[in-house]
Amino acid sequence: MSLSYRAAQTVIKRGDEEALRTALDQHLDPNLTNQNGWSLLMLAAVEGSVPLGQLLIEKGANLVALNGKGDTPLSIATQKGHTAFIELLHGHGA
């Protein structure tokens, strides 16, 4: 059974790489968004979690997705000052 967006958000906020990997292996869409267009990769960018970001990217997360306010994972990481996450995104072509 796949996680809901809310449950995936909780896993990302906790930084639980194992739970996220399991959910993705069980067909959680790496491009799942909420009603405002926030993707899972954007949530990882908010947290600055490089391991979770790397995992989502490996599973096909869209690096240039836009939320309802026009933010991308890169712009969110930049706003939050998460340098390592910015480097991760740049390393994958964002």
TrEMBL record:
InterPro entries: Ankyrin_rpt, Ankyrin_rpt-contain_sf
Pfam families reported in the protein's UniProt record: Ank_2
Keyword Iron-sulfur: no
Entry keywords, A to Z: ANK repeat
ANK repeat placement: 36-68, 69-94
Name listed for the protein in its UniProt record: Ankyrin
UniProt lineage: Bacteria, Pseudomonadati, Acidobacteriota, Terriglobia, Terriglobales
